Amino acid sequence: MQPNRIVTRDEWLAARLALLANEKAETRMRDENRARRLDLPWVAVETDYRFATPQGEKTLAELFDGRSQLVVYHFMFGPDWDAGCPGCSFLADHLDGTLAHLNHHDVTLVAVSRAPLEKLEAYKRRMGWHFPWVSSQGSSFNRDFHVSFSEDEIASGKVRYNFEEIPAARAATELPGLSAFARDEQGRIFHTYSSYGRGPEELIGTLMILDRAPKGRNEGETMDFVRRHDEYEGGPHAEGRSIAAE
Is the terminal CB of the chain with fewer CB neighbours within 10 Å at N or C? Predict the structure, then answer.
């Protein structure tokens, strides 16, 4: 580890105060964006989406679990995949601790993937997670919210993701995202917000800690250091061990 420039405490304090001014400006901008997010218009959800859950088939309205707000994490796990996306798994490691707080603040959090429910349940057991996770297989939900794409769409050269057309070379059949919904007293459901790409990054507390560590994220490409938490050296699914044999 090569140290940064070594200075006196007074020189360090001057540099820190200059950074603090930028950090405060960033906080004010974040607060402004939060206010604008809350002020976004809503769109009524008319499609009768159905999901496979451990309790049986449920509608989108039933996923609210009696609350007025629903946040969906679009977890990358295709129908023919054997495991969930490592990056999505990294984010999902941070969800369980939020559930009690969210649920007691009128918010339900659910992960949604196109993989069949039995695959989601098996992977969830492997990872030791407890948050609700349901399958949208057979539904247009993922396609309608622009996180799943057909092979034909990929072959066409472009897909619509993060509110713009992007080259298919930067895409895949599954991509991550987060969507929010509201349900009024009459039972009507509204789509209020969606975010894609690095948009949901602030949900990953580990990255927020690394951003304050001396080496930062210490990555070549975005999250290239991330592994599923049981695949790091010494873990039960570390490289060299057969997952199928577990």
Answer: N
